[in-house]
Amino acid sequence: MDLKVSDIGEKELVKYIVDNCKDIVFDDAAITPISQNKELISTSDMLIQSKHFPKNMSYFQMGFKAVTVNVSDLAAMGAKPLGFLLSIAIPKDILVSDFKQIIEGVLKACKFYNIPLIGGDTNEADEIIISGTALGLNDKETSLRKDGYSKGDLICITGEIGLAALGFNLDDDSIYVKKALEAVAKLNEGIILKENGATSATDITDGLASELYEISKDSYGMMIYEDKIPISEEYKRISKSLNLNYLDLILHVGEDFELLFTISEENLELIKDKLDFIVIGEINDSGKIEITLNSGKVCGISSKGYNHFK
């Protein structure tokens, strides 16, 4: 009996495509040499209203997010933005004023990230679908990749995580909801990391656990520590009131658009005055991805994260 795509999920579908196309670079974005000393960094993300836009998200915020999710991939590669392509499909009965708000969000984000809108396409659909393509530039062979780390490198994040995950379950004006509706890509941070010796990076879109597995490679392991991850008592209290496990939110939901990166202790000194970051663990040779809880208990981390088709 043939399997349905829901039986295997998005990551297996992507793996099938990659395995059958020798030209694809399996990273946050594609890398294409365009001259003797430059490479083009390109990425594309599609957002569907019923899947990716919370009901309390404004049309303006939808447009801004469509740019952010793509720029976040450029950030993970340490690329400088070059241009943005926008393809948008909308219902024919959407108000013109609402459509203009989406475009205002796109343009505001493009200005914020200093990435010009250079083209795109429009079409009709039963719901809002926004597909963006972001282009960036790097010097040849300088792009941050997912797997450049060594044993002993530190595992770090560029800011607090799990805020958006909690915000998706709230309807107020808290920082959690703001993070869920108005996340910002860490573009400048990615460039700083690339220029100061970071050994790998990826953006946290599907949850910390999922991204740890995304950067994992044979013969290496990772240990992170609960007491190194910023988790406020308020966060724990609100999670409990919603019958949610706070660690599950932090590890398995995502949408923070912070960067997960690795760096040697020596190079850590180079970035400490240039950007905010939090050391949460280290690379080892255990072959496992684990967390040391506050109790001292060591637990394996599952790879589950946000997964289309599941």
UniProtKB/TrEMBL annotation:
The protein here is known as Thiamine-monophosphate kinase
Positions bound to Mg(2+) 4: D28, T43, D73
Q: Which family does it belong to?
A: Belongs to the thiamine-monophosphate kinase family.
Q: Which GO terms describe its molecular function?
A: ATP binding; magnesium ion binding; thiamine-phosphate kinase activity
KW Magnesium (keyword) present: yes
- The residues covered by the PurM-like N-terminal domain are 27-137
Question: Which organism does this record belong to?
Answer: Methanobrevibacter woesei
Specify which residues bind ATP according to the UniProt entry for this protein.
G120, D121, K146, T205
InterPro entries (UniProt xref): PurM-like_C_dom (IPR010918), PurM-like_C_sf (IPR036676), PurM-like_N (IPR016188), PurM-like_N_sf (IPR036921), ThiL-like (IPR006283)
Q: In which pathway does it act?
A: Cofactor biosynthesis; thiamine diphosphate biosynthesis; thiamine diphosphate from thiamine phosphate: step 1/1
Q: The organism sits in which domain of life? A: Archaea
Which CDD domains does this chain map to? ThiL
> What else does the entry mention about this protein?
Reaction mechanism of ThiL seems to utilize a direct, inline transfer of the gamma-phosphate of ATP to TMP rather than a phosphorylated enzyme intermediate.
Q: Name the gene that codes for it.
A: thiL_2
